[in-house]
DNA sequence: ACAAGTACTAGGTTCGAGCT
DNA sequence: AGCTCGAACCTAGTACTTGT
């Protein structure tokens, strides 16, 4: 879709292959052959895409569009192509579809872009069970196609400096254009759609092309500028990275299982044979308040403060109060700002409950705590204890005692990896 | 009709107690 | 010391009710 840039890249690759003389090992030879194969496929795909594309733009327009959509996307799609095509024969045209979406997006005006985004947002808010895999693939392709690559955080600019948007500009791409709110919404939409994908347990191979592209953007940023959390909108990018990594892990998992581990396949078979409900690996939410009793409600797009009145002799009563972000969005706040504002409301409500004695204040920690799931400090033993819930066996597995917190955390991560769950961080009581 | 609120449930997480 | 168990708590999903 980007002929001038693509031809540059292709000739670079060819030049590298030509000067490739003495392979150091079999691995090098293999890598070379794979690269040549990728190149052939890429050329072929470009021809195919060129004839299939609905919109053909003059070079100038393409260059401008390329700048808007993120300069590296087309290349990354190409890079992703080969690896994906090996294992995703069931989804042969996914890259082509993404190309088309990118192309379409680049020639929309702001109003049309906004309209498309809104349509996709509405679609992802439907009850998740009513969304089919193919519908969600279509939705995910959209933000993936228009997602601008991560940029470095804005730095204070000298007053007399000419403010200009360049590829290495210190300003985030989205803040240059007139549509200030577009990229945050794109990121939010992508994140939400990936979350729905994950909880619906859809086949990750169907979106592997998108995962490749997004991961490529993140990796490129991290190689160039350090951790993604340091990028503009770093929080959002970090969440996207975590979501992509998890889905990639699933896509790479053997057979149809989502959980790696040496004995998992056998256990999964046993599980499948049992009349159990399909197991849901409880994922970390796309947002976390960090405060007990306050959690994010994905479907409702709001914070929920939920508490239990558990008096003796009385039936346990669960009360939930919601703090939707919708009203803050109506006030003109951006997505993230609206989420923060709603969270402040929820916090205030929780404090009121504490005053009324309905909720206890957050427990102060009197002993050391680890941020890694499954790592606890055993007061009795005065050691770090590792125990993690096994999602297949459905019971807690003991991982041993350790004198050092680091060793315990390493063991917890190892166990988590064996179980196929993310060794992600605990929620800090606020 | 739709959104927001309530009630309830299943099951995951944490952590202390107690057994071997 | 290592391990298992179980209580308490928490999270997330869903069905139903109520309000606009």
Written description of the protein model:
The structure is a single chain. With 430 residues, this protein is mostly helical. It folds into three domains: 3-155 and 167-252, no CATH class; 261-286 and 363-430, no CATH class; 294-355, no CATH class. Helix content is 50%, strand content 9%. The chain has a three-stranded antiparallel β-sheet. Strands 4-5-6 form a three-stranded antiparallel β-sheet, with helices on one face. Helix 2 (26-52) packs across helix 4 (73-87), helix 7 runs antiparallel to helix 8 (182-199) and helix 9 packs across helix 10 (234-252). Residues 1-7, 19-25, 46-90, 155-180, 253-287, 310-316, 363-367 and 424-430 have low confidence and may be disordered. The structure holds a DNA duplex (20 and 20 nucleotides).
Question: What are the main properties of this structure?
Answer:
430 residues; 3 domains; 3-stranded antiparallel β-sheet; 6 strands; 9% strand; globular; disordered N terminus; disordered C terminus; DNA-binding
Please give the largest β-sheet.
Answer: 3 strands, antiparallel
Report strand %.
Answer: 5-15%
| Strand count | 6
Q: What is the share of helical residues?
A: 40-55%
Instruction: Write down the overall mean pLDDT.
Output: 60
Oligomer: single chain
Helix- and strand-based class?
A: mainly alpha
The topology string of helices and strands comes to HHHHHHHHHHHEEEHHEEEH
Order of strands, widest sheet:
1-2-3
Number of helices: 14
**Shape from CA axes?**
globular
**CA-atom Rg in angstroms:** 24 Å
Low-confidence stretches: 1-7, 19-25, 46-90, 155-180, 253-287, 310-316, 363-367, 424-430
Number of domains: 3
- Through-space gap between termini: 49 Å
């Amino acid at each position: 879709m980007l002929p001038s840039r693509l031809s540059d890249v292709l000739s670079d690759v060819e030049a590298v292959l030509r000067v490739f003389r003495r392979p150091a090992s079999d691995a090098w030879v293999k890598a070379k052959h794979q690269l040549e194969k990728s190149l052939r496929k890429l050329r072929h795909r470009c021809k195919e895409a060129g004839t299939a594309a609905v919109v053909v733009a003059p070079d100038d327009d393409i260059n401008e569009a390329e700048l808007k959509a993120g300069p590296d996307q087309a290349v990354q799609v190409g890079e992703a192509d080969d690896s994906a095509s090996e294992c995703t024969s069931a989804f042969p045209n996914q890259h082509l579809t993404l190309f088309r979406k990118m192309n379409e997006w680049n020639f929309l005006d702001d109003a049309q872009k906004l309209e498309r985004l809104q349509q996709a947002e509405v679609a992802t808010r439907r009850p998740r069970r009513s969304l089919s895999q193919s519908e969600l693939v279509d939705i995910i392709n959209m933000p993936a196609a228009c997602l601008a690559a991560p940029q470095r955080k804005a730095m204070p600019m000298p007053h007399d400096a000419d403010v200009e948007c360049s590829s290495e500009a210190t300003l985030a791409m989205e803040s240059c254009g007139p549509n200030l709110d577009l990229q945050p919404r794109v990121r939010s939409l992508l994140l939400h759609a990936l979350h729905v994908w994950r909880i619906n347990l859809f086949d990750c191979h169907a979106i592997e092309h998108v995962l490749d592209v997004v991961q490529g953007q993140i990796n490129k940023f991290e190689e160039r500028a350090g951790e993604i959390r340091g990028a503009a909108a770093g929080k959002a990018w970090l969440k996207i990275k975590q979501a992509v990594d998890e889905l990639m892990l699933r896509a790479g998992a053997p057979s149809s299982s989502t959980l790696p581990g040496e004995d998992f396949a056998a256990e999964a078979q046993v599980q499948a044979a049992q009349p159990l409900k399909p197991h849901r690996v409880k994922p970390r939410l796309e947002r976390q308040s960090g405060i007990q009793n306050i959690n994010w409600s994905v479907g409702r797009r709001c914070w929920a403060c939920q508490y239990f009145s558990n008096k003796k002799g009385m039936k346990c009563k669960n009360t939930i109060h919601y703090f939707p972000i919708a009203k803050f969005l109506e006030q003109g706040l951006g997505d993230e700002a609206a989420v923060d504002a709603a969270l402040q409301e929820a916090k205030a409500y929780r404090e009121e409950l504490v005053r009324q004695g309905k909720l206890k204040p957050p427990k102060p920690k009197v002993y050391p705590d680890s941020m890694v799931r499954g790592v606890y400090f055993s007061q009795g033993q005065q050691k770090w204890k590792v125990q993690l819930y096994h999602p297949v066996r459905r019971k807690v597995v003991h991982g041993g005692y350790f004198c050092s917190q680091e060793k315990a955390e390493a063991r917890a991560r190892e166990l988590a990896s064996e179980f196929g769950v993310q060794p992600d961080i605990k929620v800090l009581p606020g």
